[in-house]
Task: structure prediction
Amino acid sequence: MPLQQVTGNEIAAGSIVASDIADATITAAKLAPGAAISNGQLSVVSSAVGVIPDSAAGRLPYKILGQVQPTANVLTTIYTVPAATNTMVTTITVCNQSANTVSVNVAANLSGSAVATRNFIVTSYALDAAETLVLEPRISLNVGSILSANITGANASSNVSVNAYGVEII
Amino acid sequence: MPNIHTILGQINPTANTQTNVYVVPASTAAVVNAIHVDNTGAANASYSIIVVPSTDNSSSPLPRHFVMRGSIAPSGDTVILDFPLTLPAGTVVAANTNNGSLAISAFGVEIS
Result:
């Protein structure tokens, strides 16, 4: 079948006009605050268009978020989300280096709030001597949120390490 | 920002000698996806895995650096640690064991 010229009438019963396709009166404000437009074409320059900075922190956000050895029976901060950052916690390891079973508690809470019962993600997990508890929680935390741990129980020991790993999104 | 999926390190450490499995290169981040601890010997072995950031001294690890300590790898068995470790440049992953029969491999992704 040979190619045929298609007219406006065939597309939209003859009622289509230029202003239906592109608003001739378009202004920068219609696109985005602070935007500039070049003569109705598609090129737009605007301070409102976001750019991901090509900094080392932005390119390589993979981190050891925290490594602590909490004092027994003391809720201890593992990690606090820095300013202007969101964080995805991928892995938490709790290594019992003592000779006895200990009880593991891990909490995540928002900035400015005290740790309450509702904040615990692990409570009273019995971790045997020379064992490691591995959590892959995939917790998303916003600015100022706090990840903390407490080692409790009859044989609570300070000889337990808690590590957190994840990605900081700037 | 290339991602290179690779064998990050493979060692057969001497007994009771802390040995590096992998050091994250400069200007690079890494995600260790799996560490395999294969006991090729006839006796059970204990092993430890440490992760030391570049800001600390890996030759003198502190208790907080231990991910595994005194764990057992039964003879003829392989222990697979398949949790992700997100590591910045300069981080050292090292191992120690009481037996020279362990083959320890780390697998993962380098991002630069």
Observations:
- Residues 15 and 98 of chain B are 5 Å apart (CA to CA).
- Chain B touches chain A through 31 residues (CB under 8 Å).
- Strands of chain B lie at 3-11, 19-23, 29-39, 45-52, 66-73, 78-81, 85-87, 92-97, 102-111.
